[in-house]
Description:
Layout: H1 2-10, H2 14-38, H3 45-73, H4 75-91, H5 93-96, H6 99-102, H7 109-127, H8 131-153, H9 162-206, H10 214-225, H11 230-246, H12 248-277, H13 281-295, H14 297-316
Amino acid sequence: MAASLLLIMWQGLLPGLLCVCLGFLATRWFSPRLGALTRAHDHQAPKLAAGLVALIPVVLIAVFLPRTRGVILDAPNTYRELLAFMARTVLELRDRLPPDIAAQLPTGAEDVQRVIAAYLATKAGTLATTGRAWLSGLLFAYIGLLVGALAAARPSVIMLKPLAAQLHLRLTRFGETFRQIVVAQFWIALFNTFLTAIFLLVVLPLWDSRLPYTMALILLTFLAGLIPIVGNLICNGVLTLVGLSVSPLVALACLVFLIAIHKAEYFINAQVIGHRTHMGVWELLAVMFVMEAVFGPAGLVAAPLFYAYTKKELQASGWV
Length: 320
């Protein structure tokens, strides 16, 4: 399992792994409900559920791709432009703040601004080469969804040989960890994205204020929301900085709104998810920063899942 998870991270197959788990759980969730609805036999219901899980992305793409094709396919270019825009905003910080507040900035603030702007420009340059990797990730995600759905539809084997039994046990524990962390975090991210979309598309226009890159910011809110704790900091920083490009008042409104909705998310992450997986916040943060340093942004997403699974295995063996 350790070698498999490391191989997945090194080869960039994390989207596929997550979608394997998602397809498996979705098929198992749909199976009894479709069986009761269609009165299908017990061995037919899982196949119907697997077919439904495989068709849902195809139907969604057929319906929404004409409207969202630019957002999905051009996502790397959009976020490269967003990072460059944020870098310019950081360099022009003194000009955008009211004179009284700008005068209070320390003398070394300009050096800090240049460092932050250079960091953002570096990340923007990295995104310039990720277009093909982004499309490959989407393909791996769909293939993973199919693999998970088909695995959930296969008949259960009562008697397993020793190696198969151990693999089944490990995969079961990994699936339980996925359900505890990723599924809960998915609904949290979806809820935050819904509130952020209302704020950006309804509330701010009522004040005659609109943020640039609105759709990219909404998608970023969902993706960053899948990362416990650190995702909050990413959302807060990006939306506040983009709001500052409009006006200091808009930036303050974005900050207050984000703090309000993310306070609830922080409580859920720290109390609910941490309680289920017996992970402290300090453990989670330490593992996330190490994984990000080794594997990049994918490490941030994988760290809570991999660490919780590792801890579950160690607890089952009586080591911790």
